[in-house]
Predict the structure of VWFA domain-containing protein.
Amino acid sequence: MLTTKVLEGTLVNAPNLEVRGQKTRFRNFRNHASEVKQIDPTKLMEDMRKSVVNMLNWKRDAVQRIAEECEKISSHYNYEKEIEYYSYYNMKYIYDDRYGEPPTNSYNWKPLQLSPHPNFEDSLVNLDHSAVHVPINVYEKASDILNDIKWSEDLTEIFKENFANDPSLSWQFFGSARGFIRIYPSTKWKVSHDTHGHSKAPTPDLYDCRVRQWYIQAAASPKDVVILLDTSGSMTGLRRHIALNVVFSILDTLNENDFVIVLMFSNEIKYVSECLTKMVQATKRNIIEIKERLEESIKTADIANFTLSFINSFDILSSLTSERKGAQCNQAIMLITDGAPDTYEAMFKQYNPESLVRVFTYVIGREVTQITEVYWMACNNRGYYAQVANLAEVREQVQNYIPVMSRPLVLSNSRIYEWTPVYTAISEIQLTEWIWGERVKAIKTWLMQHNRGYVLDNMEPVDNINEEKREADNEEESYVENRGDEDVPLNTIDMKMFNIELEMYKRIPDYKKKIPLMITVSAPVFDQRTHINVTRKFLYKNVYKDSEPEPTRIANLLGVAGVDVPIKEIEKMAPKYKIGVNGYSFMVTNNGKILYHQDFRPIFQDMLKPFYSQVDINEVEMSNNTENPRHVDSILEQIRLDMINGTRGSKRMTVKSTFDSMKRPISRVQHYFYGKVDNTPFGFALVLPEPYGSFRFEAQIDLKNNIRADNYTKYFSGTHWRIHPDWVYCDSPNMISDIVSPTPEEALVQFFNNEMPKNQFIWRTNGINPPRFDNFTCDKELLQSLIFDAIKTHNFEHCSESHKFKRRDDKSIDIVNAFISTRSGLTRFTNPHYSYEFKNRTEYNNLALSIDEVYYRRAVDYFYVDNQAFVYSVPFDNGGNTIVTASQAIFVGNGKMNTPVAVVGIQYNYTSFYSTFFRRARESQLNCDSPEIDCYVLDNNGFIVIAEDLKHSGIFFGEIDDDLLQDLVRTSIYRKMKHFDYQAICIDTIHKSSFSMPLFTPFDNLRRIFGWFISKLTATYLGMFYDSWMANANEMMESSDTTENGDVDYSSESQYPTEPRFNRSRPKQCDKEVELYELNHLANKTLHYIHVCSEQCSRNYYVQRIAHSNLLLLVLDTTACKCSVNTNKFESKPIVYNKDELCQLYQFDSERKRPSSCFNYHPNESEVKLCGGCGQLKPIFLLHIVSLGLLIMKCVGRFF
């Protein structure tokens, strides 16, 4: 048995994990130490800020040209009253005739050649044409629609001119007030399509540009809205359901510059919940909370007290004005009722004498009698009256308030430019309860098939990955893992549900895990007409007749013009190579929400998180002294306040951040420099780490003066190198066409071979005008630094061989790869398996992003802990079948002026690494194979690098022995750091009290049969008259046979009647906290401690830092006694807030800056008398509307 003294003695000579060659230095860099200079961070921030301003100004100018051209074209267009047909490219009916024939059951498909283009996320586009999308609730053959589509066709030329002037432009469009949108360039319409769920049918196309944020922001100024919902006894049944949908549709038109409160009234006023008793900002979090609480709390009874509800509403709005809170612009009351007994004229004269508060009224139901009074309320208070007879009319009628609120803007003829928060395309999948449920069903189906013996192999292919994409990318087959149990007992199958999230993640290809984000700049387009002729219907001898045309004053929007700005284009204005490793930039809105940030995580698996567009800067930046959730440091709060107010400044703050999916903490001092992005509501910030962030290695090759001095192509020979795939070294003249080089490396080699010898390139400049790419345009600093680095690292492979980086021998670890990555984005490596082809980029994804890679960032930070150390890491939970990566930063400079220029690294075969450790331990008289001791090699964050059990590799040590880990904290070997995640997703389980089948009454069964019959009937009818527009809806209705609580109905013979019914789960955004660990600085000696397991048991353990590494050797004496071991799974845990804390989240009034423009009044608005009327349904569309209503009810049922 080993004694304590023996252990102490042997640990002095602990196994040295270094192998020959690790201490190799690339002195070629250090010979240029004089090239290290101190930069002016304020000037660097200013240069980047101005670049962002200039680029966004180009996009705004493009929008201005589109808007002006719209007004010009429309004012000269001769309206064709009898138009019945016009041929145009409908985005839903475009096909590429080079790859097949159009569908045989449609007559209006048009051929168009489409090619991928990088400006549009490689979407298939045609740069010669624009195309149109018409919403499902708009009749595309109506004369008004065809006329507007016809005149807007001429916008294609201005779209093309804009693209020629600014080749970096993305999507350009005009959204018409009639509902259609014209987009350039032309492309096929994309709908959200979840290929990983139980139902693989595409989501129905319910897109309408008039309810998109870019449209509403440009069409109307910010507003404070009081929604009055009549909950009297008459608002029951279908009326209650329609009224709820009207409220939901109003809420969907609001954005974070608006404020809202919902009041339910009958004989008294009721709030939606205890947390929503005052006007709140219309954030996505608040909107979802209002919807959920409203659906739960609404009860109809008693008689409506309109006087009480209106007085209460006016008091709320008045208090906002006096306290200067809320939007401080438009104010409106939205009344949803089935009629009112009086106009309450006296009350309106008292509380709204000048009609400063608009009143919009929505009368619910067809058979209503008290219409005149409600009509008067709207027309005499600058509002609009609408009657909503059924669900199909909800969206169209709700939207009528937007053009009314836009009248002051139209009458002023002021062109405003609005910028949206960050968002993404409508075709991307949103994380909703329904989408989640469909994916859970797919996993459950697999589990049940597995349970019944259908899965016989150890690995089963997943068949619901997009086959076309997989074949195109030539990706490997994806699999769902069978965890070894060939037959899961029925009574234990629920236990596997804890892995559902992991199983879902496995099914998602890598290309699905990144979603392009954007912002949009938009501007209103005004109808230049001041009067139109209106024909009214009047009743004469019980017959409706048309009156003579009457000139009527109007103030209408034609629509909204817009341009998308991809976030990646903004990030290019602040290049990472200029910022340096562990530095970053970010931007915030006037509400303090981020547009982009290095810790912004909008994606959950491949789905957008519910509140992804409204992440506050306080939720991604965290002070080092933050110990409680939602605590905001005073310095960070000042930075936020300065940025939203457009104040230029700088601040230092000690922060804590994380690497590797929030598993590795880092604490450092950061210096923030920030300023306003002119002509936008945005603020820009540059963040540099200290102490190295303010120094730069400026060594370059003067290319223009030495262009023929050397053959630079030879430094880029072979395929054992890569450049950063996201950095733009040179822009090609072909970028505005579909001629795109397949890889960045091939493009660079082509440039060296063709353009550079002829000196046919220019340097990129930051001017006020968009760059013109008539020639190759290169980034001078980046390209010349790249060539310098290539020359200095050209002998890397020879250097590796000369220092005996052996593949394998009896005395060294099996080294599978050596690499070096430099500040210019160049990465060289020696592993031949990583160099098959440039286009095969998957093999080196963990290396080629240079300063953006985790290994690079960790090595640079660890330099200040031990400048001789290599940072070792293994993938998490790898089970021993992996590689070990060791990296070390190369710093250059003199004295305090040191800066990182590269990181050198080695990758080992893990099995060889593991075996070498145990062999070297035995040579040092430390027998880690002995049952008397347990040996662990831990990294600086408490993760196991080596343990006797190979399966423990990459596992957090607390999952093996949490008691011992806490003892390591107590003895100051490790320190514990608490980190908060405000962008987390929690999966709540909805437990059932019983697995028995739900009981249905005869009326329930009749209702289900009737719904099925009507859906089939209407789909058949519409298939005859309206082609295939309802095909997706019909497939969706057929594809899911569910019970009312959303579970799969296994009662039919075709299913599995003997299978268990699962608990439902529901995703929601939440806050989480996690405890992270960091190794303290230790002297290079053996430390002895006693771990007290219990009153009867204590054990000795010894720790020693492994020299020149981030590793710790832990040896535990197991001979004394057997301790019970407590484990703690490494995971973030949801934060449970009490009721007051939850209310604070909804009611919190964070500092914000109101939009600079406000148009809420114009003296000529009183001349506009149009204020709505009763909705009339045309008989020919009756089944159309009924079917759409059923579709919407289906969607509402799934999402809410």
Summary: The radius of gyration is 33 Å.
